[in-house]
């Protein structure tokens, strides 16, 4: 037993001896010294730019870009006119899709002005591979003539998997041969291939109330200051109409993209809204009429496509137009009242006539009804005394009483001679016992009194 334990210990010591040297051969990382346990910063150092070239498109540049990354720059005009706006595009293609962040700045240079237009990022297919593409666009102007240098700023790349950027690239600069404009031309004159005025509108105007005159100006290289100077000097107020200073602001890109394709000048074109306040006077314009002529406008610009830019100016014109306005509300209400007065009077007269006519018709109908009722009651009488009493009762019930009931009074009221004779006969039958009428005589007399009863007595 003791011999077996001794053999086992010997084997373990042998294995330990073999493993010791192998463990000692494994390299261990050396601790960072004086770096606060972080990796040392990598200094890329200054990059010497390449000499400028006179090529529109180039992928050349100085420095170091990530493997496979292509930086392309494009300048649309190498011989621009002074203050002409041209397009500069910088494209970064990343086939391996390894770039995490890119720091890009606008182009620069002495006598160069650049403003950003758009920054886009998308994925495109190139040679059957999906490539990450970054697009940067600037609107650039050469502010003075002669030979200028358009320089691109340094691009710093942050690559996936690296804590710190190890890549920087400076695209090759461009040599510009700028056509100088005549020195006497104002610096605010726009240099654009085309200038357009559109969307002209005038609000409905009312005397004493502010209104508006609006239009849009579309072109390249426009500014609010330039448009204000060009327009304000031509705003001469006509009689009867006051004009305010133009309020000018640039519309967003959505407004430009909403235009039909035929009306878009270029990606560099901008649209500016011009609002001019109008105030019509209560007194009116010339000859007291409520109308006036808005001034015509001539907006000059320099066409860079001309043979000699700036020697002759081009113009876009906004023709004069006549505007009218309504009277103030109080005057309009008074005028409307005067205009409606004849109709009101006619309506009142018609109402009076209608009332009078209706009253007459009503009285006529009531009189006819009362006369029929009286005749019916008289027809019911079967003897002279009853007929006389009923006749007197009907006379006493008339709208205009007959007082006294005599032949002369009844004749004055329009009773016919025949009816009066019949009445006298009836009275003789009632008061003379010797006169007794035959039945047919009574019926004839009663019928004569009934039919001869004047209709106008019942009105």
Care to describe what's here?
With 459 residues, the protein is α+β, with helices and mostly antiparallel strands. The longest helix is centred in the last third of the chain and has 51 residues, at 329-379. The strands form six sheets. It has a five-stranded antiparallel β-sheet, with no helix packed on it. It is 29% helix and 29% strand. The N and C termini lie far apart (163 Å). It folds into three domains: 57-178, Immunoglobulin-like; 196-327, Immunoglobulin-like (Sandwich); 356-458.
Summary, kept brief:
With 459 residues, the protein is α+β, with helices and mostly antiparallel strands. It has helices at 2-24, 224-232, 253-257, 329-379, 384-396, 407-412, 417-431, 439-451; strands spanning 57-58, 61-64, 70-75, 85-94, 99-103, 112-126, 129-142, 146-150, 155-159, 167-171, 174-178, 196-202, 205-206, 211-219, 241-243, 247-250, 270-280, 291-294, 297-301, 314-318, 321-326.
Task: Tag the structure with descriptive keywords.
459 residues; alpha+beta; Immunoglobulin-like; 3 domains; five-stranded antiparallel β-sheet; 8 helices; rod-shaped; disordered N terminus
